Amino acid sequence: MGRVRFPPALRPGDAVRVVAPSGPFDRTLCLVGAGYLAKRYRVRFDWSMFEKRGFLAGSDQRRRSELERAIALPEVRAIVAARGGYGLTRIAHATSLAPLARDPKWVVGFSDVTALHVECARLGIASIHAHNCAGLGRGDAVGRAALIDALESPTRPRCFEALQTWHGGHASGTLFGGNLTVLFTLAAAGRLFVPEGAVLFLEDVTESAYRLDRMLSALLVAGALDRVAAVAVGELTDCPTGPHGIPAEDAVRERLAELGVPVVAGVPSGHGRNNAPLVFGSPARVSNGRLEISPG
Asked: Which of 203, 207, 249, 292 is catalytic?
């Protein structure tokens, strides 16, 4: 892909807006997370984000309008999702992202927020795969500090070592990815954009081995991963072996081998408690047992 634009690094006192474009969430945990961010930034949100409509945080119109307002407000320097869950794939395609293209700001979150990370990649704008606001509410001090570091020093080199090598070799590219289920859903909707030569990060939660196999197989057959230079697998959290006795990791490893590119696994990012921040859009390199991210 072309040159990736990095939004300005945050500074203490900058405006951060919390939005709920996906599913409903634990109010207390989100307020605790927002309170943590408020120790350093000017945190704002609409009280309407606490609405619940079944498995959604309010209507599509409410969620889309809230997101568009956060994107359009010039003083906002980062947008943090309250929670993932489900809902962004219903509205991302219809959300006006032109103000984000004109004035890049950090989009922060993971899981369902993968849909927004893909839209940022399509615009050539870096974004941060990290805890949602409610996750900050239950996270530990190390995880919280890591997010602040990613926001304020996004071009700092980072390295994950002692990873599992599923397929040897080395390759470099642009770090990109997120939740496998969401990427699969976007492909089905015709909305998946994969940067050419990407270092693809994948994670998922509560998906059995055969479902992970099915989603990866569909992406492979569709040619959606043909331009990937390497893969870094994150946490496969609570993904059961299932009745066939095949571990989720084995299913993913077997399918990814078909790409014939370097693959490492065990990146501590995803639905686990740690969820180490990843700055998508950064230059990255996968080599035996290592994922090096060096945006600077």
From this structure: 203
